[in-house]
Amino acid sequence: MNKDILKPFFEAYSEASMSSDPTVLASHYADAFIASGPTGSAAFKTDEQFLAWLGQVHEFNQYVGMGSLEVVSIHETPISDHHAFATVEWGARFEKTGDERFCFKISYLLRFSEGKPLIIAYISHEDQEDAMKARGVI
After folding, report:
1. CA distance 135 to 87
2. How confident is the model over 26-54, as a mean pLDDT?
3. CB–CB of 51/26 below 8 Å?
4. What are phi and psi of 71, to 5 degrees?
5. Alpha-carbon distance 106 to 104, whole Å?
6. In this structure, are residues 115 and 106 in contact, taking their beta carbons and an 8 Å threshold?
7. CA–CA dist 51, 21 (Å, integer)
8. Half-sphere exposure of 46 toward its Cβ, with a 13 Å CA cutoff?
9. Which of 28, 73, 96, 113 is the most buried (most CB within 10 A)?
10. Is the model's pLDDT at 86 over the cut of 70?
11. Hey, how many other C-beta atoms are within 10 angstroms of the C-beta on 137?
12. What is the pLDDT of residues 31-43, one digit of tens each?
């Protein structure tokens, strides 16, 4: 149903993730959203504090040498006319790993507003820092 919308949305998200301007990445999120992973969950507002946190995430990614982030695959499950669940397999490359692609999955609950998806929740399938340590990135 929304496959033609989701691929460009997540490709733009990957570009925004590599940008030093956190407002571009924040525009992919609803006004409030939930983030969850193996170590816990939290609710956020897309406010100045969130923008500051995104800036810290960008600095961390630069510190660990992330050179690229790409969409490997998207599996979508429509929920309603206004919602979908999408699991994205991401591929990242780091200076320390060269051409080797570091793959990980994140599932997103999306709300469609005027045809545009917005992230209202996401679930990381693994702890990013633990996975990066296991693969020698950090």
Report:
1. 22
2. 95
3. yes
4. -80, 120
5. 7
6. no
7. 9
8. 16
9. 28
10. yes
11. 19
12. 999 999 999 999 9
CA distances from 131 to 41, 103, 109, 122 (A): 18, 10, 23, 18
Exposed/middle/buried for residue 110 (C-beta within 10 Å: 0-12, 13-18, 19+): buried
Going by pLDDT thresholds of 50, 70 and 90, the confidence category of residue 114 is: confident
Spatial separation of the C-alpha atoms in residues 38 and 44, rounded to whole Å? 17
Structural tokens at position 118:
């917005």
Rg value, the chain, Cα: 15
Stronger pLDDT, 2 or 22, i.e. the higher one: 22
pTM for this prediction: 0.91
pLDDT score at 1: 47
Band (pLDDT 50/70/90 cuts) for residue 4 is confident
Please tell me what DSSP assigns to residue 37: E
Which DSSP helix (H) or strand (E) runs through 106? strand 102-113
The string over 31-60, giving b where at least 16 C-beta atoms fall within 10 Å of a residue's C-beta and e elsewhere, is eebebeeeeeeeeeebeeebeeebeeebee
CB 76 within 8 A of CB 3: yes
Residue 104 CA to its chain's centroid (Å): 10
